[in-house]
Amino acid sequence: MIRADRDGDALTLTIDRPGRANSLTAAMLSDMARHVEDARDLRLLILTGAGDKAFSAGADLEEARAGLATSPLWERLSGAVATVPCLTVAALNGTLAGGAFGMALACDIRLSVPQASFFYPVAKLGFLPQPSDPVRLAALVGPARAKLILAGGARLDASEALSFGLIDRIVPDPVAAARDLAPGAAGHVAAIKAMVP
């Protein structure tokens, strides 16, 4: 399930399936995308996961085998995150894997706990990444490192992810750190985002 907690003009969306490494079903992806698409009056949007082990392991395995791994829902969600005018933060409470990369890559800022790991094993599983993911990943880490992660299946720890530029800070509590950010008025945030390529 996706938990939505609004506090004034800040919204936190939590992937709440810790017993399954916060793996995502089609219904969860659709629900998350709908929340983001409706969030046009915010200053801050935080995406996180429940528990302390995984932000998200990506697609639910049973649904992945049934076609979720290549569903356009992933691109719908990451596209919505990329275009929402407020400041967006991926508060990575644990491991980020597979298709869940898309929503984190689409965020403006990525904050991570020290024990997180990062891997996107699409090539090993016989899939291609969602179309926008390699572009966003290469913009953050460079083309060679993007190929290392996507084609080589490299697994990064948080310190290596930070040195690559995949994440922006390592913090003990990413949600608290995200809430400590003080974005300006919604219109100013949107204008600044439009100025930064």
Structure overview:
By secondary structure, the protein is an alpha/beta fold. The chain has one domain (2-195): 2-enoyl-CoA Hydratase, Chain A, domain 1 (Alpha-Beta Complex). The protein contains 10 helices and 10 strands. The chain has helices at 26-37, 61-65, 73-83, 101-106, 122-125, 132-141, 143-150, 158-164, 174-180, 186-195, and strands at 2-7, 10-15, 44-49, 54-56, 87-92, 95-97, 109-112, 117-119, 156-157, 169-170. The strands form 2 sheets. Strands 1-2-3-5-7-10 form a 6-stranded mixed sheet, with helices on both faces. It has a 4-stranded mixed sheet with strand order 4-6-8-9. β2 (10-15), α1 and β3 form a beta-alpha-beta unit. α1 (26-37) runs parallel beside α3 (73-83) and α6 packs across α7 (143-150). The longest helix is centred in the N-terminal third of the chain and has 12 residues, at 26-37.
